[in-house]
Write a structure and sequence with these properties.
The protein has 278 residues and is α+β, with helices and mostly antiparallel strands. It is built from nine helices and twelve strands.
Length: 278
C-alpha cells in the first residue's frame, strides 16, 4: 500500500474539478463504528461518478488511520489520543490533462488525513443549536444529489454567512424555499408520531448519521418519512434536531425568532449514537 499523500499533484482532477468523493469518519477506541455505512456511501458515490472504487484499499487506509500513533503534547504517544479522532478519506479520479474529459486510463488517487476529535460545545449538545437562514438556496442537480462529492462551494459560502452572523449553523433551503439541510448537518423534524427528514433526490448530502437515524428512530414509536415540508410548517414542529457522523445528534432550539423545546426523541437518539463511540 502506498503511503498517504502529503501533497496533491497540480494535475489531480479532484483539485482541478472537484472530481471525486470523500468520507469523514469519527473514530473510537474500538475502531470506526459507522465504517460500513461510510464505505457503502463512498462506493455508491464513486459508482455514480464512474470512478473505480476498491473496498479493500478503503479498509487498508482506514485501518492505518485507526492504528496511527498520535503524539501527545509531551512528545510521547498518547493512548487517550489514539482512542478518538476523525479520519478523512478522499478518492479522486486521479491525474488528467487540461479539459473536462477524463483520461481513458484512470488511476484513482487516495488521500488520507487524521484529525483530533473535538466535541461540539456543551451548550449546543444540551440546549440545542441556534440557526440562521442562509441567503442562497441549494441548486437542484439530481445527478449529484446525495453525494459527498468534492465540490462543496454551497457549504463554503453558507459557512461564511454563519461565521459572520455568529450562528451555530445555517439552514439551507431548496429551490422552492423548503428546508433542505444545515451547513454541515442533516435535518429532522417531528410532528406528533411522524418524523420527517427532507427528501434529497434533487439536492443535498445524504449523511451517514441521517441513515443511522432513519434505521433507529422507528424503535421509538415514530414513523419515518423522507419528505419535504414548507418552511412555515416547520414552525409547528414538536421538535427539531440535526445530525452528522462526527458531531452526532444535536437538538435545534431556534431559527431566528422561532423556538422549539429539546425533545425526548432527539435526546434518546443522541444517547444511543454517543454510546457507539464509548
Amino acid at each position: 500500500m502506498a503511503p498517504p499523500l502529503t501533497y496533491i499533484p497540480a494535475n489531480d482532477r479532484g483539485l482541478a474539478y472537484g472530481d471525486g468523493v470523500f468520507e469523514t469518519l469519527r473514530l473510537s477506541a474500538s475502531g470506526a463504528p459507522l465504517r460500513a455505512l461510510h464505505k457503502e456511501r463512498m462506493r455508491q458515490g464513486a459508482a455514480r461518478l464512474s470512478i473505480p472504487f476498491d473496498g479493500e484499499t478503503f479498509d487498508r487506509y482506514l485501518d492505518a488511520l485507526i492504528e496511527e500513533t498520535v503524539e501527545g503534547a509531551n512528545g510521547a504517544s498518547s493512548a487517550a489520543a489514539q482512542q478518538s479522532g476523525v479520519a478523512k478519506i478522499i478518492l479522486t479520479r486521479g491525474s488528467g490533462g487540461r479539459g473536462y474529459a477524463a483520461p481513458a486510463a484512470m488511476s484513482p488517487r487516495w488521500i488520507t488525513q487524521r484529525f483530533p476529535f473535538v466535541s461540539r460545545p456543551a451548550r449546543q449538545r444540551d440546549d440545542g443549536l441556534a440557526l440562521g437562514l442562509c441567503r442562497e438556496p441549494v441548486a437542484d442537480l439530481p445527478s449529484l444529489a446525495g453525494l459527498k462529492h468534492l465540490n462543496r462551494l454551497d457549504q463554503v459560502l453558507a459557512q461564511q454567512q454563519v461565521s459572520a452572523a455568529g450562528w451555530d449553523e445555517g439552514m439551507l433551503l431548496d429551490q422552492r424555499g423548503r428546508p433542505l439541510e444545515l451547513t454541515s448537518m442533516n435535518l429532522f423534524f417531528r410532528f406528533a408520531n411522524e418524523l420527517f427528514t427532507p427528501d434529497l433526490r434533487s439536492a443535498g448530502v445524504a449523511g451517514v448519521a441521517r441513515a443511522w437515524c432513519l434505521q433507529h428512530a422507528s424503535s421509538h414509536g415514530v414513523t419515518c418519512r423522507q419528505q419535504n415540508v414548507s418552511l412555515s410548517r416547520l414552525r409547528e414542529a414538536d421538535e427539531v434536531f440535526a445530525c452528522n457522523s462526527v458531531a452526532g445528534i444535536l437538538p435545534v432550539r431556534k431559527l431566528a425568532l422561532w423556538q422549539w423545546p429539546v425533545g425526548k426523541l432527539a435526546r434518546s437518539l443522541q444517547r444511543e449514537f454517543d454510546a457507539l463511540f464509548v
